[in-house]
Amino acid sequence: MKGAGAGEEYLDSASAVPLHPAARDVLLAALDQGYADPRRLHRAGRTARLLLDNAREATADALGVRPDEVTFTPSGTHAVHLGLLGLVRGSRRGDVVVHSAVEHSAVRHAVAWGARSAVVRCDREGRVDAGDLAEAAATPEVGVVALQVANHEVGTVQPVGELDLPDDVPLFTDACASMGRLPLPDGWAAAAGSAHKWGGPAGVGVLLVRKRARWRNPFPGDDRVDERSTGFENVPAVLAAAAALQAVVAERDEVNARQHALVDVVRRRVAAEVPDVEVVGDPHRRLPHLVTFSCLYVDGEALVTKLDRLGFGIASGSACTASTLTPSHVLEAMGVLTHGNVRLSLGRDTTRTEVDAFCDALPGVVAEIRARVGL
Amino acid sequence: MRAWGSDVDDPVDLELDCREMPCPMPVIELARHLDDVEVGGLLAVVARDPAAAVDVPAWCRMKQQDYVGADTADDGVPRYVVRRLG
Predict the structure, then answer these.
(1) Which residue of A has its CA nearest to B48?
(2) For B3-28, how does the pLDDT look when each residue is reduced to its tens digit (9 = 90+)?
(3) Which of A16, A231, A333, B60 can pair with B65 through a Cys bridge, CB separation 3.0 to 4.6 Å?
(4) Which residue among the candidates B3, B14, B23, B37 is catalytic per the annotation?
(5) Collapsing DSSP states into helix, strand and coil, what is residue A95?
(6) How far apart are CA A140 and CA B10, in angstroms?
(7) Which domain does B25 fall in, by range?
(8) Which family does it belong to (chain B) (predicted)?
(9) Are A111 and A137 in contact (CB under 8 A)?
């Protein structure tokens, strides 16, 4: 799809998606109607409360959960922190969190802040073995297991619905990369999503806590409509996020099939047309819209910059593109090449022509960067 | 020199000093100097770059070379050892 920059193909929907058309009118109308405090009993307050309740019901309906299991948070990251640490706080077993080596940094930071970590390895495609997780979960002092629905960097879908955990060890699932795109799996006690990754506005996260889950607020509470939320709700943004989610769920069969096929084209063409390249992640059981590959001898920053100059906006997990100067912990855990890395993620209207234009441009860009170092 | 507890048993034929090089230079140096050792010989790269710990074994897999293992140079900097297979 066309990005905001002149002539740019924006191929980074896994970082953020432009506002879904279905959400725009809802947002604009709600800006005028949903400004008041939803706790107040006056007309404007009741209107805001109605919009908030509508958003909760629409979100619950789109995700197949109960409305009272839905909490809106100020970000997906905050939903992860609340969901995971709330289960840790509610645990009677201990404060060790068993989690995969490829969880999002939001999970890793939450564990580092308020729990103890037990990491379970993944295979070369980034998938964790359900048996390995269950075995680790059965050890003493394990309070919670955390496993993402699908990996945000390489797209590999995890066996969340297949986990056989001890009865008193709840599962937290980070659904930020998949929410709206894939149905929620079964078996979790708490889950998190992020609206700007499905086409809602930024600044809206979704926390889901199952009715029977032992969840205790790990942070200072508040006196809002929803006991799990903190601070004044952004009612217009929440309503727009819910509208976008409904629209994405309604169109996902068609969009997913199209994106899945386009990603197959990228996987095939990149592997065939760029020498010394490693296309990573599971080729089949994956997010529909995302593909990651690494090019030997190529500086990731040079690759991102050069592709941007040609009009392709892509992300990279290479160390030189990160503020920390360490490579992506996901690629590292998978044991795949971390430098020269590209993560390409499609929009809902990305076309075959656009994908082919990227695949046409890539070999020349890689060859040029390699030529600079004489390889 | 061979460090205790190292994966590397045989003497290294050529050691590349990539201590101060950023990613992906250590792997580029490895590729440039592969032919400088005989087939069956050992080539080592010494690098602080944290990506080298992943990228040297990945390079070996992609280029059909043998990743022998890691130890540390005399100054404690990580050293990654490769056996040339072809």
Answers:
(1) A326
(2) 445 667 789 999 999 999 998 999 99
(3) B60
(4) B23
(5) coil
(6) 43
(7) 14-83
(8) Belongs to the sulfur carrier protein TusA family.
(9) no
At residue A374 the predicted structure's pLDDT band, cuts being 50, 70 and 90, is confident
The token pair at A223 is 């006196």
Contact assessment for residue A171 and residue A242, using Cβ atoms and an 8 Å cutoff: no
Verify whether the Cβ–Cβ distance A299 to B59 is below 8 Å. Answer: no
Structure tokens at A341: 């890395």
CATH of the domain at B58: 3.30.110.40
Task: Write the CB contacts of A100 (distance below 8 Å, at least 6 apart in sequence).
Answer: A119, A120, A122, A128, A133, A146, A147, A148, A158
**Residues A69/A208, Cβ–Cβ less than 8 Å:** yes
Q: Do B23 and A326 touch (CB under 8 A)?
A: no
Give the number of other CB atoms < 10 A from CB of residue B81.
22
Query: In this complex, is the C-beta atom of A336 within 8 Å of any C-beta atom belonging to chain B?
Result: yes
The per-residue pLDDT for range A242-285, each reduced to its tens digit, is 999 999 999 999 999 999 999 999 999 999 999 999 999 999 99
Residues 6+ apart with CB under 8 A from A40: A46, A48
Q: Rounded to a whole number, what is the distance in angstroms from the first to the last CA of chain B?
A: 25
- Beta carbons of B32 and A276 less than 8 Å apart: no
Give the number of domains in chain B. Answer: 1
Q: What whole-number distance in Å separates Cα of residue A359 and Cα of residue A273?
A: 8
Structural domains of chain A, ranges and CATH numbers in brackets = 9-18+252-372 (3.90.1150.10), 21-247 (3.40.640.10)
Does the N-terminal peptide bond of residue A159 adopt cis geometry, omega within 30 degrees of 0? no
Give the burial string for A53-89 (b: 16+ CB within 10 Å, else e): ebbbebbbbbbebeeebbbbbbbbbbbbbbbbbbbbb
**Whole-angstrom distance, CA of residue A190 vs CA of residue A86:** 9
Closest CA to A276 of B48, B30, B83, B53: B30
| Preferred mutation among B54, B60, B80 to probe A, highest tally of A CBs within 10 A | B54
Q: Tell the residue number behind the tokens 């496993």, with chain if given.
A: A147
Query: A338 CB near a chain B CB, below 8 Å?
Result: yes
Out of A319, A336, A375, the one facing B58 most closely (by C-beta) is: A336
Q: A321: nearest CA in chain B? A: B23
* Mean pLDDT calculated for residue range A227-232: 90
Closest chain A C-alpha to B59 CA, distance in angstroms: 7
Give the residue numbers of A annotated as catalytic, written as ranges.
320
Would you state the pLDDT for residue B1? 44
| pLDDT tens digits, A354-373 | 999 999 999 999 999 999 98
Q: A331 touching B, CB under 8 A?
A: yes
DSSP A17: -
